[in-house]
Amino acid sequence: MPTSAMCTVEKRGSIFVLRLTGDNEHRLSPALIDSLRSALSQVKSEAVSSAGISALVTIADGKFFSNGFDLAWAQSSGSRSGMVDRIHYMVESLKPLLADLLSLPMPTIAAVTGHAAAAGFMLALGHDYVLMRRDKGVLYMSELNIGMTLPEYFTTMFREKVASPAARRDLLLRAEKIKAEEAVKFGIVDSVHDGEEATVEAAIRLGKQLAERKWNGEVYAEIRKSLYPEMCKQLGLVSRTIVASRL
């Protein structure tokens, strides 16, 4: 299921593999955000039509999982006010993409085989599970170093998904670059693996294990949403009551 030059979706049995392609940094430009949203819409539509539980694994080619927003595009506006407007546009555009992930009716896994910085780190955190390559790549929030405040939904995501106050402090108030082993200790990453191939294989394996549980996808999505009430409020997600009893 190709979506655009920026990402592709491949169905492997019960697993959807969403791959970021194209340039090495996978900057979250409006075009890439739109491409990812289109891909997730395809995944959701196919999962609903098949009436079976699936899982999503997101991977990225090259050195970066994602290096955040496309600041070069913002700066190319020709004026400071234009740059600020473009940054604001990307900030607002990312919100529905994260809402798509949080409401997707299946488990989601990010295989982080390269750097995940700023908004790219947020993209990884939007998944249920994060697996990371041991030998290369860092998690990094660059806003303090480049002189930008954080959108409120960024900090809300950190409060609801990163339990360690020390981790939040080091990432947001020291702009530390955290490697895989430390990220596991902080509870940000679920497991680390030796190399790109091993990380992706582990993510696929986990996805298959979760899909085999044959949970109701809509119920799964609603329970996920209930875990992050403040994030859902900021993203405009409304909870629903679903009874799909298997008793």
| Structural class assignment | alpha/beta
Residue-averaged pLDDT = 93
Order of H and E elements: EEHEEHHEEHEEHHHHEHHH
User: What is the radius of gyration computed over CA atoms, rounded to a whole number of angstroms?
Assistant: 17 Å
Please state how the strands of the largest beta sheet are arranged side by side: 1-2-3-5-7-9
Biggest sheet record: 6 strands, mixed
**How much strand?**
15-25%
Question: What is the CATH H-level superfamily?
Answer: 2-enoyl-CoA Hydratase, Chain A, domain 1
CATH third-level topology:
2-enoyl-CoA Hydratase, Chain A, domain 1
EC number: 5.3.3.8
Protein name: Delta(3)-Delta(2)-enoyl-CoA isomerase
Catalytic activity: a (3Z)-enoyl-CoA = a 4-saturated (2E)-enoyl-CoA; a (3E)-enoyl-CoA = a 4-saturated (2E)-enoyl-CoA
Organism: Nepenthes gracilis
